[in-house]
Write a structure and sequence with these properties.
Number of strands: 2
Structural class: mainly alpha
Strand content: under 5%
Shape: elongated
Number of helices: 2
Bound molecules: zinc ion
Largest sheet: 2 strands, antiparallel
Helix content: 55-70%
Order of helices and strands: HHEE
Strand order of the largest sheet: 1-2
Radius of gyration: 29 Å
């Protein structure tokens, strides 16, 4: 009887230990998840600040940012060129505001409602 009680106790102890380890891991996982969420949030905020700074200063780039601003501008131009190319391959045109591909005959963007005829004078 003693023997079985001892085995029983050690099984209970082992189970508790595993349970506590698992709980510890869960706590770590929770903290890691929370940390990751905060890091993602922080990165989004930095990105937003960068965009706001760029928008506010693009007409007159501060000297120390001139090169980065040029690269941003060049990338934006390239993106709109690529949107146009994709659109024409798909037989449509890209909305200059949101990039959605709409029919060449469309007067308004179906995604954002931008009037297109003013911009696409060749239509
Ligand atoms: Zn649009």
């Amino acid at each position: 009887m003693d023997f079985f009680n001892k085995i029983g106790d050690s099984i209970v102890n082992a189970t508790q230990e595993v349970g506590e380890k698992a709980k510890g891991m869960t706590d770590i996982a929770k903290l890691q998840y929370e940390m990751k969420s905060k890091e993602d949030f922080l990165n989004k905020q930095y990105q937003e600040i960068g965009k706001m700074f760029y928008e506010a200063n693009k007409s007159e780039a501060p000297e120390e940012y001139a090169q980065v601003f040029e690269e941003v501008e060049a990338a934006a131009v390239k993106i709109s060129e690529l949107q146009e190319e994709i659109a024409s391959l798909k037989g449509g045109k890209a909305c200059p505001k949101c990039g959605a591909i709409v029919s060449s005959a469309a007067s308004f963007c179906s995604e954002c409602g931008t009037k297109l005829n003013d911009i696409f004078e060749e239509d």
